[in-house]
Amino acid sequence: MTFTFPQKVLFKHCDPAGIVFFPRYFEMMNDCVEAFFDQIGSPFETLHGGTGGVPTGRIEARFHAPSRHGDLLTLTLEGRRLGRSSFDFTIETACEGASRMSYAATLVFVGADGRSTPWPDALRAGLAPYINDEA
After folding, report:
1. Is the pTM of this model over 0.85?
2. Contact at 8 Å (CB) between 116 and 85?
3. Domain 3-130 superfamily per CATH
4. What is the DSSP secondary structure assignment for residue 59, as one 8-state letter?
5. Which of 4, 10, 68, 124 could form a disulfide with 119 if both were Cys (CB 3.0 to 4.6 A apart)?
6. Which residues are within 8 A (CB) of 5 and not within 5 positions of it... i.e. 6 or more apart?
């Protein structure tokens, strides 16, 4: 199963040349991840409410083509591996079927002390259907 997040490229995402300034892609990625956690029943405002959170432990990115102001992007999140306290995933960003950017990242579930801790059962159950066993 995958999670899809639409994103229109706004003026705030662009540099003076009218193309997406690369750090803005990471903000879009984080927006996608936050919406994904809403979808699986663990909104960030609850998850990060003082008891822990899911910081990014690793991220890789490849830029395939520029995106421009007004483009309608689709970010597609797919899980790759669910560990004891980690979640590996990819996000493919495309516009009208053309690849713009690819991400591979790892989130780590941490407790209030900032140390990795096992996923709570309910959160693990929400993440599990998004793992692609063929990855």
Report:
1. yes
2. yes
3. Hotdog Thioesterase (3.10.129.10)
4. E
5. 124
6. 31, 32, 35, 36, 74, 75, 76, 77
Helices (H), 2-76: 22-39, 44-47
Q: Write the pLDDT tens digit of every residue in 99-124.
A: 999 999 999 999 988 899 999 999 99
The first and second tokens of residue 60, run together, are 């890789």
Cα 30 from Cα 33, distance rounded (Å): 5
Helix (H) or strand (E) holding 125: helix 121-127
Q: Which pLDDT score is estimated for 30?
A: 96
Q: How far is CA 107 from CA 70, 97, 119, in A?
A: 30, 27, 11
DSSP-assigned letter for residue 128: G
